[in-house]
Amino acid sequence: MSIRHAVGVTAAVTLWLTLAALASMTQHHESGAAFLPVSHEANRSFRPGTAHPPAMPTAIVPADEADPEEEDVKLTLDRIFPKKSFFGPSASRVSFSHDGRFAAFLYRSYAERRHGSDLYVHDSETGQIRRITSVGRMAEHQADVREVRDDREKQAKKAGITPQSLADEQAARLGWPASSPLGTWKGDASTDGGPIDEGQATLHLTRGKKDTFEGYIRIGLVKLALTGAKFDAETGALTATIDDKTLSVEGSLDAAAEEGFAAISGTLTLEEPAQTVSFTLTPGDEAAEDSDDEPRGVIGSIGERLTLGDVVTDADAEINDEKNGKAPDKRAPRYGGVQGFEWSESSNEMLLLSGGDIYRLSFDAEKWAEPVGPPAGDDKDAAGKPVTPYRGDLERLTFTRERESDVQYLPDGSGYTYLRDGALLRVSFGDHRIIQLDPELKDGERMVGYQLSPDQKRLVFLANRGDSYWGRGTSVTIVNYRERFARANQVTRHMPDSPWPDAFTSVYLYDLDGYETEEGTLERVFTKRLTGPRDILRMPEWSPDSTRITFAAYEQTTGLVKVLEAGFVEESDDADADDAKEAPDAEDDAEGDSNGNDEDTDSDKDTEGETKADKPDEDADKDEDKPEFEIENAKVVYEFYHFGGPNTPGMIQPQYLPDSRRMAFITELSGFRQLHLLDPRYQQLTQLTYGQFEVYPFDISDDNSTIFATATKDDPNQGHVYAVNLETGDMSRLTSVDGDYSSVAVRDDGSLLLASHIDFGSPRELVAVTPADGTTTPLTDSHPEEAHTLTAASPEYFTYENRHGQTIHGHMFKPKDFSPEDKRPLLIYVYGGPLGERKMATRGAFAAPSYFFARYMSEVHGYVTATIDPRGASGYGAVFEKANFEQVGKPQTEDLVDGARWLVKQGGIDEKKMGLHGWSFGGFQTQMVMYTEPDVFAVGMAGAGPTEWFNYNSWYTTGTIGPHKPGQLNLKDQSLLPLAKNITGRLLLVHGMEDSNVLYQDTVNVYRELLKADKEVNVELFLDPTGGHGLGGDVKTIGRYRKYEDFLLRYLGEGKPAKADEPEQADNAEEAAEVSADESVEEGATDEDADTDSTDESDKGDTDDVNEDEQENDDGAERSQDAVNTLQTQTARP
Questions:
Q1: What is the pLDDT at residue 87?
Q2: What is the pTM of this model?
Q3: d(Cα 260, Cα 178) in Å, to the nearest integer?
Q4: Domains in the chain and their CATH numbers?
Q5: Which of 133, 549, 817, 827 has the most crowded Cβ, counting Cβ within 10 A?
Q6: Is the Cβ–Cβ distance between 423 and 405 less than 8 Å?
């Protein structure tokens, strides 16, 4: 036998063995055995969850039917807690144009997750989405963006990316007629005999270096790599070489493309082994099977990757990470993107904020309507590079070192206003002047927010004076151990016993008639003295007719909510009326002291410390220049005491109805956050929406007749979008697909909305919803396939009644081989504190402890894992959110104990093997239960828990934990230290030593109490020397959960199904001893495995908690009236 013949036989045998192996794997996959499926584009499509019926007391809602592929997902800690999160960024700041045709949003793709967001515009008439800004475009205006562009161009060239390859990519993305053989081609192949059988053929080509192509051809089950592929555009000839070392196959491909690339026909000639294969292929509509699973970003968007400066390589997200413990010598530049935008109220144009400067973006309707297509064949200038679509006309308006903020269009679109270094400036388009609108204020006041009236003639603004609440407090030492010797850092915290500053916030009305000659009419119509850290005074809202403003003021010390009005009234000749409207001087005591005693002693006063900046000169001549109106001081039109949750007062924001008299706002007077209608004329408050659910308004229609809101009307575990008629209170649901909706924008007539949607099996994406037919269309594809794979499983929802008859909600995971006869360990996760609109047992809540670790312990170790929202949580009504006050942790303890016992009654759980864990407030709650109900849970894992509430910040404690008195530690009775000695179970305490939110000393102090009580065997301490409140230092996320896993397996063991022949109870002591011994052996083996795992994984990198809900949105600063006012400031929660 010749050497050549021997090689041919060897190649043939290799091919046959390969074919046999492929066929075997295919059969194995079809039989249901574990097999890694090929990634398909469809796997990243919008996959909404199925409906769960509203939960009923003492009920378990079965989990959704799992996809067969999902059943084979194998979880490991490395997989669910990777170094970098597998979740991508989400769209933000969604907003419709004035006519409702366009919707704009900010977004950055998964590949660009290290950078800022760019502006996209969705055309609802054509369905097109265009990327408006990019590095390539903004580099024309900003020097720092040019650094990013230059760096990206360098990296792109290294990767072999050229303008031509970007042009090819654009053509494929937009479905333009082919001008080259790039892409995927499919058809049939025939052979003359040999190891390759006839069957389906696939040819896939991408552009290689210089003028070559690369890819593969697949005939049946055999896939052969192509090298040196070349295409002759004049003759249509395609040639390539086959030299597959793995399969020992050599040969060549010769083919020709038909005119217009309708088909490619040719032959595949194999030399070793000898065989000829003929094929005819047509363009395929599926992605190549070996294409990566990178998310598509904005689906079908036009204007992506137009220049090399827009290309983000795969290594970009980690380019600034430490390598071998060292940071790179020079960090790669970061693109800041667009921080915010605002549509004009009169035309399709907008103002952008980028890099601290203002840009104007206007759209020409005719240019926008021009079709976007491939360049003409004779257009040499356009050849070899992407086509740039029309993206609007961008003009930079400011060039300053200061950062502009709070940019607002004038209501008629003729110009804009903005804040710069505390000054309110107005610019009219076509006018070279910059006019300062804010008047000179006295007493050291400074403007912190503003709003023009609808007719542009008047201005309302807020001003602060006095000491900053957050600037004063107690200096706390945080010890840093990162250097040779420990270093002390000082952090200022305002404690519950810290003194209140002498601080005020005022509301001003300013008539702009004559402001250009500094003759505008200014009045201070309301002043509020700070009484506590949770006092609320939000930016007032204008009435549609521009004559009045309304706002709500909340006083923490009394719990009183006042709804007030001020405005412009026609000048009256009635002297008595004038006297009645006159307010005290600004420095009079009428502003009230911190106890609010003035209100109690002055029954005739219907204002709260209202003052005027300047009294009218009684001797002034009443000539024709006198204004034909008076500015009326703020008056209380309705007041009530708030006895609900601590976060509700900040949500009370009155909005006028079309009659410019009546107002709508939410209160918790009914026990739940519901909309109410107020008629100030009769001081009549009417409830508009009813039920045991929450309503969260986010917008009002242009005619002020409809409020758009999210609500938990049909299911407390998911929030849908509703249109609420302000006359009748009727609620029309606009969304149909199950899940939770947020960041919602609704067209004014309610016919279209864009929102972020999330559900189990469907990570957060921007969707467009047409309420009329329920169509829900995904607009973004933000997450890699791994995110979809690992979030496909849905927990089972359940409810039970606590000892007081209240319904408690939760969800759980159970092992696939679970049965009620089992004796499984139970692990419950709890937070338990108020979070405003958020809670734990929500559809699509992919938190690390309540979803990923819970699933892992259930699927890998056989645990039943549950997440429970006890009283104290938000979203279930006032009784729940306010439950902590003066009894922190007690209601939660009752509900958790009741829940654990209820779950035991359902079967399958060993009541002697129950564990509880939580972080921050949940860390406190875990300890509270372990100390006060020591016989219920065998183990607890408490992370960063506040054990001494009088050392936590006053904003949180005085609103959630209990009342306060400056100079007194009246929250000392809420300390856990005296209770710690009662523990009987095993407790793991976890804390970051650089935590400036919940102080590390809280864990040290309770640890000391446990040691003093001889409980050293009951407690373990796990510290991150460089970690903060969420850790993130030396202890990585995977390390934290490895520790949890080890701790649980040591003390609770593995969960196992009940054996059919095993008695429920041992008949005698000897049998019982045998069972105990068996369990000990199993636990010992597990400990060894866990220790080995810990060693193997000890050098893994950092990971943030995999919590999709907390992915950065780069929303930027909100308007000053909502964010700058110190009376509204919110601080960190435990």
A1: 95
A2: 0.81
A3: 7
A4: 1-27+174-310 (2.40.128.120), 94-159+318-396 (no CATH), 437-479+507-595+602-616+625-688 (no CATH), 795-1106 (3.40.50.1820)
A5: 827
A6: no
- Which helix (DSSP H) or strand (DSSP E) does residue 173 occupy? helix 163-174
- When computed from its CA atoms, the radius of gyration of the chain, rounded to whole angstroms, is 34
Question: Per-residue pLDDT tens for 369-414?
Answer: 999 888 876 566 667 889 999 999 999 999 998 889 999 999 899 9
- Angle, vertex CA 559, rays to CA 924 and CA 806, nearest 5: 50
Q: What is the pLDDT of residues 332-358, one digit of tens each?
A: 999 999 999 999 999 999 999 999 999
Count CA atoms closer than 13 A to 73's CA, side-chain side: 23
**Nearest one of 493, 696, 644 to 960, comparing CA atoms:** 644
Phi, psi of 1108 (to 5 degrees): -60, -30
Choose between 184 and 1070: higher pLDDT. 184
Distance CA 860, CA 858 (A): 6
Instruction: Name the residue type at position 246.
Output: T
Cβ neighbours of 543 (radius 10 Å): 22
Task: List the one residue out of 695, 997, 943, 697 whose CA is nearest residue 830.
Answer: 943
Q: Are 894 and 802 in contact (CB under 8 A)?
A: yes
pLDDT tens by residue, 874-919: 999 999 999 988 899 999 999 999 999 999 999 999 999 999 999 9
Tokens of 199: 């069957």
* Residue 283 token pair: 């363009």
CB 809 within 8 A of CB 793: no
Neighbours of 757 (CB within 10 A): 28
d(C-alpha 542, C-alpha 533), whole Å: 27
Tally Cβ neighbours within 10 Å of residue 2: 7
CB contact set of 500 (below 8 Å; sequence gap of 6+):
469, 530, 531, 532, 594, 966
- The tens digit of pLDDT for each residue in 304-329 reads 999 999 999 988 888 888 777 777 88
Q: Which residue pairs from 401-407 have beta carbons closer than 8 angstroms and sit at least 24 positions apart in sequence?
A: 402/356, 403/356, 404/353, 404/356, 404/357, 404/358, 405/353, 405/1117, 405/1120, 406/449, 406/450, 406/1119, 406/1120, 407/340, 407/342, 407/351, 407/353, 407/358
Output the six-digit token pair for 20: 């046999």
Shortest CA distance to 802 belongs to which of 902, 881, 884, 932? 902
Closest CA to 925 of 942, 938, 911: 942
Nearest to 531, CA basis, from 511, 502, 488, 551: 502
Residue of 1128, 142, 79 lying closest to 651 (CA atoms): 1128
Tell me the CB-side half-sphere exposure of residue 464, using CA atoms within 13 A. 21
Specify the pairing of strand 706-711 against strand 720-725: antiparallel
Cis bond upstream, residue 946 (ω within 30): no
Q: What is the mean pLDDT of the segment spanning 448-458?
A: 91
Q: Report how far residue 956's alpha carbon sits from residue 1133's, in angstroms, rounded to the nearest whole number.
A: 7
* Distance (Å, whole) CA 579 – CA 370: 65
Alpha carbon 25 to its chain centroid, in Å, reads 40
Tokens of 652: 């009370």
Report long-range pairs for 550-553 (Cβ below 8 Å, ≥24 apart): 550/637, 550/654, 550/656, 550/663, 551/507, 551/634, 551/653, 551/654, 552/649, 552/652, 552/653, 552/654, 552/665, 553/526, 553/528, 553/608
Mean pLDDT of the chain: 82
Residues 1033/1026, Cβ–Cβ less than 8 Å: yes
Task: Name the least confident of 263-272, 325-334, 968-977, 1110-1119.
Answer: 1110-1119
Question: Strand, helix or coil at 906?
Answer: coil
The pLDDT-based confidence of 39 (bands split at 50, 70, 90) is very low
Q: Are strands 986-992 and 1019-1024 parallel, antiparallel or unpaired?
A: parallel
Nearest to 798 by CA among 290, 53, 147, 11: 53
